Amino acid sequence: MARYLIINADDFGLCDAANQAVMELFAGGYLLSSTVMMPCPKAKDAVQFSVEHPEYAIGVHLTLTNEWEERWPWGPLTSGRSIRNPEGRMWPENEDFEAHCKYGEAIAEVKAQIELAESWGMKPTQIDNHMGSLYGMNGKYLMLPKVFKVCRDKKYPFRMCTTPKDEFCPDGVPLALYKFFCRFSGVLSRLYKVPTPDYLILTDQVKCLKGVETYEQFRDNFLQFHGNIPEGITETFIHPALPTEEMKSITGSWKRRNWEYMLMKDPLTHQFFKDHGIELISYRELVKMKQK
Q: Across the strands, what pairs with 57?
């Protein structure tokens, strides 16, 4: 079986710096997949770009947390009190969200974000989740099947892995729990007929910044890690952005985000995957493969 890789640009719609980077990568043919944060300040610009360019695979990045609540705040689209902190914004971390949220209010927000994108004329190619807040790994174990049901009803594929691979286990998550959730997701994918990737690489698993001082070191670490993906369909994600003052004011990870933008424009990146027999695809190809 061949090796396929989806490189998704998360956080489209976050801000102008992210939007400009993602739009440029799509226009240059460097990027095949992205997802929009619907509650964020620049979501409408991102959705409009998707409407104007239906040839690009762009979906919805379900956003139930706001890790930059002080520097770049946003709140839910719905009125659910349990998914808001005392200031009315989203909870900053997954643990906070799962500790407070009620299932009904969380799923109402999930539907509202998808339906807002649709009401603006977007036809999402896939659904995924900011920070993995809807995976239920912090106690809300029924969240994942409820999200799969939404994707089934909406007929969208969903980002979640179905096959465990030890080196892809998230930091801080017990290996046994990770393996359970992979297999659980596989059951849900088959039960609800929602296409998903086989494997998922989380950002923290790619130790690209450990001891890294230059873009070239970052690129080489990234490519070395992804050059060893298994047969089947693997998804990884990036957060490309331009190094503007806006981006620097939002997050201390602005340099990595700029390097990820540079990575996708780098001819060596695309040549590397060709040389290693890895085909870059989007969710459109994933759906076709999973339907066979």
A: 33
Query: What is the pTM assigned to this prediction?
Result: 0.96
Q: Report angle CA 105, 59, 163 to the nearest 5 degrees.
A: 85
Half-sphere exposure of 240 (CA within 13 A, CB side): 24
Contact 40, 277 (CB under 8 A): no
Cβ neighbors of 9 (< 8 A, separation 6 or more) are: 21, 22, 25, 31, 33, 34, 35, 237, 238, 239, 240, 264
Q: Which of 158, 236, 232, 234 shows the shortest CA–CA distance to 191?
A: 158
Q: In the structure encoding, which two tokens stand for residue 210, read together?
A: 């450990």
Q: How far apart are CA 147 and CA 142, in angstroms?
A: 9
Q: What is the rounded average pLDDT of the residues 192-210?
A: 83
Query: In this model, does residue 47 exceed pLDDT 90?
Result: yes
pLDDT tens figures, 5-41: 999 999 999 999 999 999 999 999 999 999 999 999 9
Banded model confidence at residue 209, pLDDT cuts 50, 70, 90: low
Beta strand 232-238 with 3-12 is: parallel
* Residue from 101, 168, 163, 164 nearest 134 by CA: 101
Inter-residue contact 40 to 14 (CB < 8 Å)? yes
